[in-house]
Amino acid sequence: MSKKIVLFIVEGITDEISLSLVLSKIIEGDKIVKFKVINGDITTKTGSNPSNILNKITKIISEFIARDVYEKKDILQVVHLVDTDGAFINDNSIVQKDIKFTDYDTQYIFTKNVENIRNRNEQKAGNLNKLIETDTVYTNLPYRTYFFSTNLEHVLHNNQEVIDHEKSEYSQMFENKFVKNPYSFIDFFNNPEFAVSGDYNETWNFIQQGTNSLNRYSNFHLYLNTIERK
Prior knowledge:
Helix content: 25-40%
Number of domains: 1
Order of helices and strands: EHEHEEEEHEEHHHHEH
Shape: globular
Distance between the termini: 23 Å
Strand content: 15-25%
Number of helices: 8
């Protein structure tokens, strides 16, 4: 390939719809943007743990390469986007409530099964901490993971509880907002209301404090600020 791939690993199709077109417009020149949608959260999947999470990331990249008939050398870097889902909160902030689905606000997670959420958070936090300290995957591919808290819609739309059937509409709205002025997309993510100040490690340390992983924060601006504006 004449152009190198910037590969974004995301949880769902609405992540791709929200971000891919605008990113393609601002990441140009000798680079091309590609998305790998994994349809779920690799950090909470059954069997994922800090001892094998990097192998699972490598498998995701291998699947992308095989599907689109690329080679490993075609990939310039891997950018992994994750939701925090309140993974770092204290167990006391997980509250039992007789509800069908898990609910979130900026201080608590409400759930019918507290133990399940505690176990999920412990697994997710352990896997994220392994990914945070990782700067290469698949032996030598540059890698970084960035967070949206509590989730993508919380950051993009200031709505913590977008229901599933509305997510596509929200993602299309976000794309339309920036497609004609793509560099304002970078300005959006630098909004001090939610852009965590500090370097990469400092932002991850911040999101792990108190109930921050339930509040509207992101460090994706750290990646976007490395992009040269044309």
